[in-house]
Amino acid sequence: MLSILRSFRAPVLALATSLVIACSSSTPSTPATGTEPTSDAGATADPTDTPDGSTSGTMHTVNVSDFAYEPAKLKIAVGDTVRWVWTDGTHTVTEGTNCTKKAGGFDSARHTAAFTYEHTFDAAGTFDYFCDYREHCTMMGQVGRVEVAP
Ligand SMILES: [Cu+2]
Q1: pLDDT tens digits, residue range 52-67?
Q2: How far is the CA of 20 from the centre of ligand 1 (A)?
Q3: Count: domains in the chain
Q4: Is residue 24 part of a domain?
Q5: Residue 46 forms part of a structural domain
Q6: Nearest CA among 91, 36, 86 for reference residue 61
Q7: Is residue 16 part of a domain?
Q8: Residue 67 Cα, ligand 1 centroid: separation in angstroms?
């Protein structure tokens, strides 16, 4: 059992590490694909997946650390992608308000440092999210917002 876990974890960690390295470059125009766990199964067209990148939305990075998202408030355009990068602690990126999950909203699940989670915003609107460790949200105020302009 342990060996199975090890063999599974190693490539995942390597992938996460390489993503962070790639993310640290200054150009946000070459998003990695396939890093989103499960929550975007309903998305049809991901503009960041275009081969030449010419019509890609912009990639925005938000750091996820102990009890904060940085920047906590982000203004983007429809078609842009937000990449959350875990830098410290164990946290989630969970869509919802008042520390309550929105049904069908995006959700990274719980992760630790070096994990990255991406979500492409295909519609205009205001999207609030929070850390789904209850006390992080309710006591530490770990919340964020993405405003998507049409
Ligand atoms: Cu948290």
Answers
A1: 444 579 999 999 999 9
A2: 19
A3: 1
A4: no
A5: no
A6: 86
A7: no
A8: 5
**Domain harbouring 130, CATH code:** 2.60.40.420
Nearest CA to 118 out of 30, 52, 54 is that of 30
Residue 46 amino acid letter: D
pLDDT in tens, 108-131: 999 999 999 999 999 999 999 999
DSSP-based three-state secondary structure for 128: strand
Nearest to 136 by CA among 70, 90, 97, 96: 90
Q: Identify whether 98 is part of a domain.
A: yes
For residue 89, count CB atoms less than 10 angstroms from its CB and return exposed for 0-12, middle for 13-18, buried for 19 or more: middle
What is the distance in A from the centroid of ligand 1 to the CA of 132? Answer: 7
The residue to which tokens 């602690």 are assigned: 89
* Entry pTM: 0.65
Rounded distance from Cα 111 to ligand 1 centre (Å): 9
